[in-house]
Specification:
265 residues; alpha+beta; Protein Transport Mog1p, Chain A; 9-stranded antiparallel sheet; 7 helices; globular; DUF5642 domain-containing protein; signal
Length: 265
């Protein structure tokens, strides 16, 4: 019985890691409607048309430059990042993690409301076979997840989104209980590795209340795109804010992952 419970717990943990890694990319793919109004429509039509043409050109260029290898061949492995305890996450667990995020966003309440904008279609598209690969591991109280995905054509700069949502409160139900989480989002000033577009490093501190208890944890997410492939490295601390040492390890993994894709045939 104990082994069965342990196995179920491990599977649930791996699904959460998959969700965490996917979320790092999905947040970058979220729709950002801040500052838009009907009064601005006429004045921005030409800009929107120009932006659409530029995006199409960029997508075509990225598609032509994408590596030939499958995503599970492009993602970083334990041999290439031995300090993170990485193991491949099965495709069905990735799909389960993405489904969990999709279900969560249907019942979630976010304040300010503008911070809840979320492109669920882009998220679910990553569940298609061969679209995303994840390697995940644990080191002490920290969980790491490295993800690569072919769904990166619409990856915008996340900096504006984080600047517009430095603090937010999230409420949702879990096992019949209301969970309230207060998050503080901070952009970390880091240099993007060579060849990376739409780079962002985000430090998130969370305080969650559940059944009268307060729990503190932290996330550090680094995202970007290289050769048309989206890359995300997520470090999650279960015992408080993410330390500088862990941030450095996550950034090192991101740099290695980018180099692997950049140098791929």
């Amino acid at each position: 019985m104990i082994s069965g419970v342990t196995s179920a717990s491990r599977r649930r943990g791996r699904r959460l890691l998959a969700a965490s890694a996917a979320l790092g990319l999905a947040l970058g793919l979220s729709a950002c409607t801040i500052g838009e109004s009907d009064d601005d429509n006429d004045g921005t039509t030409a800009q929107q048309t120009s932006a659409a043409e530029t995006t199409t050109s960029a997508e075509e260029s990225a598609a032509a430059d994408k590596p030939a290898g499958a995503v599970d061949e492009l993602v970083l492995t334990a041999a290439e990042a031995p300090d993170l305890g990485l193991q491949p996450v099965p495709a069905e667990e990735i799909a389960g993690g993405l489904s969990a995020i999709g279900s969560l966003t249907e019942n979630i309440q976010v304040e300010p409301a503008r911070c809840a904008e979320f492109n669920q279609d882009a998220l679910l598209e990553q569940a298609d076979p061969g679209t995303m690969a994840i390697q995940a591991g644990n080191v002490g109280e920290t969980s790491f997840a490295v993800a690569v995905t072919t769904v990166a054509a619409e990856l915008p700069e996340r900096a504006t989104q984080i600047e517009d949502c430095p603090t937010m409160t999230v409420k949702f139900g879990a096992d019949g209980q209301e969970v309230v989480s207060d998050a503080t989002n901070t952009l970390v000033d880091l240099d993007a590795p060579e060849g990376v577009e739409d780079f962002a490093a985000v430090l998130q501190d969370n305080t969650t209340e559940l059944m009268g208890q307060r729990v503190e944890n932290g996330n550090f997410m680094v995202t970007g795109a290289v050769r048309g492939i989206g890359v995300s490295v997520t470090a999650t601390s279960n015992s408080g804010p993410v330390s500088q040492e862990v941030q450095d390890a996550a950034m090192d993994a991101f740099t290695k992952q980018v180099a692997k894709i950049r140098d791929a045939a």
